[in-house]
Amino acid sequence: MSTLLIPLAKYQAPKFLISATLLFWGYLIGTLYWALIMIVLLELKPFINRRFQFQNSHFYLIGNISTVLFLIVILVVVFGTNPRLFIHQVIALLPIVFYPLLLAEHYSEREVVPLGAFIYRFRKRQPNAVIQISYIYFALSLLATSSVYHDSYHYFIILALLISWALWQFKSPSSNRVVWISLLLLYFFISYIGQYSLMRLSEEVEAWAIDYFDVLFNGERDPFRSRTAMGKVGELKLSNKIVMRIKTSDNKPLLLQEAIYNSFYDNVWFSSKNIFKPVKNYSYGKTETIKMLVHRNTRSDKSLLALPLSATTGSQAIAVSENVKLSRTEYNTIRAINTKALFEYIIYDSKKSNINAQEKPNKIDLMLSRRHQKVISKIKVGLGLDNLSDTDKISRIASYFKKNYRYSLYQEPLSSNEDALISFLEYRHRGHCEFFATATVLLLRSENIPTRYVVGYSATEYDSENKLFTVRARDSHAWAQAYVDGKWLNVDNTPSIWYQAESANASIFEPITDLFSALYYNYKLWEKHGDNESYQLYIIVLLIVLILMVVVSRERNNLWLKNKIIIRKDKDDNNKKTKLSQQQLESVITKLVFESGVNRYFYEPLRDWQIRYENKLQIDDELNRIISLYYRLRFAEKQATAASIKDLNHKVNIWLNKKAN
After folding, report:
1. d(Cα 422, Cα 377) in Å, to the nearest integer?
2. Start-to-end CA span in the chain (Å)
């Protein structure tokens, strides 16, 4: 029986390609030692004259060994590494799993591998089916290199060079080298842009999904965990959507805290106090002064309250509608339950506050991560904080950030194992509010000042016409809160230019979205506080108008559909008539050609047949008129009537009778 070589795997890889790919794989995966051993065994081939006469049974045995290796790799990965990285780890070790088969092919006389070594059923059904696995092994090795995250263009360049090397032998000899290389470069460029965009898209989708479920289950923000964007590559963008409108007594910009955290690990802040306790609603009288009125847009029945620091000191009270229930943590992260689409709460100056003052500091508020102690100590050396009061230390640190750091929404890629916060403090000196807030917390803690990490909003955009602050999603902010002289103070070291930088990214459609938001806001206020009878009257009028619009639109659609059916029917009838007339024309011409005595080729136009007929016999004016009439009737469909086809048939019969006589 002859040997069957699988067409898609009959090419040998170019010399040194597999070795270069293994070197690339070993360097990236961290198995360079094993990769070098594998390369040496492959490249010793020119120095070893002997080749082995492997039979199919030998290859099957080596295939079984590779299968066992694969199972061992799976077991080692499952029980020895992080289960979440299972697929990545298995893919990374594929070159080792299939290396025995590559080596067997390399040193065998046949230089091919039976397909049965990979697929068991081929061992009996098609034992002579063989493949050359060098290109398959090359592809598996490249796949293995992708199992480790690479946020660098260097990886893609080397990948492109290896693929180009592998494809070079497939270039047609007639192809222009410059054109071939240019097209390949264009392909790699498009591929790089595509994979980079997909990677960024996956990050955005992941971030969106986490934020979405935070909103779905926890309201507007997770009160116990704050995932920062530190280390996230690219430009940080937030929505222009209006999240709340605030009326205050003094119209001064203010920081509104939503959640407070005190434990930092791996770019995530956590709250050690994660139990909400009920809070009684405040029953206000006529003498209290309203400090703040907030209307907040919510997407769930839970919402964290954005509050000024003064509302958490025990000197102010919070009032909500009767059906809304309030609860708080010991850090005064306050949650409202049973909120509506536009949720309203009021803050009063009151000696009978329903919110206790924020809990005093504990040991966690002084903790520093070991990873950041070195860089924090290095910065402190140049600050000269010794013998300063806590207030002066805060001022000195604020001046340090103001002088040496700047605000930026864009973050460059980090090298492998590089810490985003350390890079910000030591080298880059630019970042967004989360960098400044986290760095401030750690610096103050290193000076034995209890400090916490706060997230919320900065109310800065004042609407003088409506006399209220408009707070958008992009106004989300982070800052520190330090405990000094027995009370908590806000410490915001983010450069003040941050608000202008965020506003500069506003969408050109913002005025339009603001208009609809304002209409919705005013409608909800009217629904809540407006005249109920007039509200019902407006609803009835609106329903009548909508019903009339639907009725009119339906009648117009019915008329349009009826006309369309009539037009379509007429068009179908015309198509049938046209098709019938064309068949009749072709029947007349077929009779003409058949009885003329000169055959017509199936691909031959009628005019070419006429020329060949006249060259063979004689020029015939009557035949020319008949064919001209046929073309006129054939391509001018309106003239192909039954009478005109009958006339053509009559002329053909006369011409044929003359030829017969």
Report:
1. 12
2. 69
Asked if 421 and 267 count as a contact pair (C-beta separation under 8 A), the reply is yes
250: helix, coil or strand? coil
132 phi, psi to nearest 5 deg: -105, 120
Are 409 and 506 within 8 A, CB to CB? no
Contact 96/144 with Cβ under 8 angstroms?
no
Query: Contact, 332 vs 488, CB < 8 A?
Result: no
- Give the whole-angstrom CA distance, residue 214 versus residue 221: 6
Compute the distance between CA of residue 167 and CA of residue 175 in angstroms, rounded to an integer: 13
Strand spans (E) along 6-46? none
Q: What is the pLDDT of residue 196?
A: 73
219 Rama sector, left if φ>0, alpha if ψ -120 to 50, beta otherwise: left
pLDDT at 450: 92
Query: Could you give the count of Cα atoms lying within 13 Å of 36 in the half-sphere of its Cβ?
Result: 5
The CB density around residue 615, as the number of other CB atoms within 10 Å, is: 10
Q: How confident is the model at residue 234 (pLDDT cuts 50, 70, 90)?
A: very low
Rounded to whole angstroms, the Cα distance separating 573 from 568 reads 9
Boundaries of every domain in the chain: 4-169, 171-218, 225-522, 551-660
**Of the candidates 623, 591, 596, which has an alpha carbon nearest to the alpha carbon of residue 607?**
623
Of 603, 594, 576, the closest CA to residue 652 belongs to 594
8 A C-beta contact, residue 346 and residue 293:
yes
Q: Tell me the pLDDT band of 36, cut-offs 50, 70 and 90.
A: very high
State the helix-helix crossing angle for 17-29 and 32-43, rounded to 10 degrees.
170
As a whole number of angstroms, the distance between CA 402 and CA 534 comes to 56
Going from the C-alpha of 137 to that of each of 132, 141, 143, the distances in angstroms are: 10, 6, 10
Q: Dihedral (C-alpha) 105, 108, 110, 115: value to the nearest 10 degrees?
A: -40
E-strand spans in 216-341?
Answer: 225-227, 234-235, 242-248, 254-261, 263-265, 268-270, 277-279, 289-297, 302-304, 316-320, 325-328, 334-337
Residues 120-144: tens digit of each pLDDT: 888 877 777 788 888 889 999 998 8
The SS3 of residue 270 is strand
Q: Give buried/exposed letters for 640-652 (b at 16+ CB in 10 A, else e).
A: beeebbeebbebb
Decide: helix, strand or coil at residue 269.
Answer: strand
The radius of gyration computed from the CA coordinates of the chain, to the nearest angstrom, equals 40
* Dihedral (CA of 230, 232, 236, 239) sign: negative
Average pLDDT over residues 616-625: 77
Burial of 267 (0-12, 13-18, 19+ CB in 10 A): middle
pLDDT of 387: 82
pLDDT at 3 over 60: no
**How many residues are present in the chain?**
661
Q: Which helix (H) or strand (E) holds 33?
A: helix 32-43
Q: What is the H or E stretch that residue 117 is in? A: none
DSSP 316-381: EEEEE-TT-EEEE-TT--EEEES--SEEEEEEEE-SS-SSPPPPPP-GGGG---HHHHHHHHHHHH
- Kindly report the backbone phi and psi dihedral angles of residue 279, in degrees, each rounded to the nearest multiple of 5, phi listed first: -125, 130
DSSP letters along 545-570, please? HHHHHHHHHHHHHHHHHHHHHHHHHH
